[in-house]
């Protein structure tokens, strides 16, 4: 087990009635908010109305900033920062999924500095202060509501990079499973795949030699994600299925599983970020479903025991070889409707070199193992995904 | 799944080198500390020296307050509060196990009020402010280092009661597994039993009808506790075994497992608090090892499925009846050296009525189900433990 520092101060208000606390929490952070959201699904699922009525009741002014897109882009972030500065907002409310929350974190940090926010993502600057952030989650996927990370795509160069910092933890996050009842099936599937990938990365890529706790907890979260995703697809308005799924997605990437595992690598994310950075219509979860089994095939010898453990836990069925484990995982991904090949997400063999080059840039930016994840090896992984 | 609010802001510094951060963390909280500890084991395991040298290096004054006993008592708490007030300390450092931390929390809250600290435990007052607390854990058991609870015994009436409140979360806790290398075997065993009981209570006593996540995570923590306790007993100076055990004990009772389970009852704790309140030489973990299997026998019909699940997970062996599950658990407790009968902890049949009456008082004080846990039923449970 490796040394670690763990502190996750996010206050989670969870459940059917959680929005009752919204006004009270919001007024702690000031009298004027920037309300960030996407294409307006929050006006259908009930979140918008609850937020606006609570703000009005507390006399909190707010400026709306809609239009965040999936795989949020730098140009829109910059607009948000401009508005936050001009309007002198005291805090930011992110209402939506991981894209809205990640963009809001960028606005929170960007509003406090005079330089371009992209410097945080390039790694030349580190966020030291930020506007307070409250999130209202409507799409469980990234766990951004309970962590300090943010991923943004720079559409000028197709680079999708991340930043992190303690000042980016939301002050509070509101998780009402009922807001997820209206999500399209594919978003449930992609959200689940994303959450599974947040476990897969530390599960397979860590430096601690011996860590029973993190892997045992990871096994428990993985089981819940699988069961509840299947349950939701059959019965989308079952509150308990939605609630367990939503909370499992959040807990999957709030720092707990990673504690004590030492340095984590994120190769699947690096490769997927290259894909959705270059092909912004590919959902992050869809890209991950394609990359993970291919990556597993590439590392199947060195990760043999972990692959068998992962599969035995998830599928409650003992396998003898890593190939069987990968086949089971891939079949299950297909069964819930996730793509498992590049072709299914509209990417051809000829796109591979370009993706591999971009992924290698991200590998370097994240200081991952660039001697192992060479352009050539990334191409091999992508070929397994054809 | 039930609605919940979850926020655990404790900063955990974990590992071999964690004390490097101690001075830096301490100076955030002021220039003068009260250093609370027990009978001096911290002078053998290395914690005392690390703390004192860091305080000196940072120029932080400190007053020592040793002598906390297992099952910490109100009279000693009151002395600590007097000293904290007289010396005008800015913060408190608890160096030891759960007893030292619980007593320190009492001092932190008591130092801020003019009335008697026992009023918090009786429930007539609620702690609204407290001195900042830093803990250095040397005995993994209660998870007090990462929660907001405190248990104190009033030796005037033998009542062992608890209080809780957000202001009682430690600001930071330092967990160096090496400090636990010198613990006597029985403390490892009792600490493990205590941690298991922190999972057992919400596992079996909750109101949520459906919660896959908490129970799946609980299963993972339970497995780690069992494995690492067995490993430590064989190889006490294996760092990885100690580290996984220490962190599992902390995570077992930091609020995560309980989130979403609804109202929890703590019948095993209520009965055990009666035992160790009246017989202060009984270690809390020893009392729990005696009570849990007896309590399980009493509720075996209504908790049938959960008992089988609990056992199947922990012993990786499928059982058909709850009695088999209880027998396996009891045998395992014996195998690690925990007592499983009242006789083994020096309590006779004739003591049962007195314990049952005291337990019933605690049941009422905690607002548990007093219609189910009547004096008569508590006596039945205790008779199963003979």
What can you see in these coordinates?
With 386 residues, chain A is of the alpha/beta class. Chain A is built from 14 helices and eight strands. Chain A has a six-stranded parallel beta sheet, with helices on both faces. A two-stranded antiparallel ribbon of chain A has the order 6-7. In chain A, helix 2 links the parallel strand 2 and strand 3. The model of chain A has no long low-confidence stretch (mean pLDDT 97).
Q: Give the CA-based shape of chain A.
A: globular
Mean pLDDT of chain A: 97
| Structure summary, number of beta strands of chain A | 8
Biggest contact = A-B, 45 and 45 residues
Order of helices and strands of chain A: EHEHEHEHHEEEEHHHHHHHHH
Helicity level of chain A: 40-55%
Query: What multimeric state do the chains show?
Result: homodimer
Strand order of the largest sheet of chain A: 1-8-5-4-2-3
Termini Cα gap of chain A:
37 Å
Largest sheet: number of strands, sense, barrel closure of chain A: 6 strands, parallel
Q: Give the radius of gyration of chain A.
A: 20 Å
Ranges of chain A where pLDDT stays below 50 over 5 or more residues in a row are none
Q: What is the beta-strand fraction of chain A?
A: 5-15%
- Structural class per helix/strand content of chain A? alpha/beta
Per DSSP, the total helix count of chain A is 14
Secondary-structure topology with pairs:
The structure is a homodimer of 386-residue chains.
Chain A: E1 4-14, H1 22-27, E2 32-36, H2 47-58, E3 61-65, H3 74-87, E4 91-96, H4 98-110, H5 118-122, E5 133-137, E6 149-154, E7 159-164, E8 172-175, H6 185-204, H7 212-234, H8 239-251, H9 267-278, H10 284-298, H11 304-315, H12 322-335, H13 352-365, H14 375-384
Parallel strand pairs in A: 1-8, 2-3, 2-4, 4-5, 5-8
Antiparallel strand pairs in A: 6-7
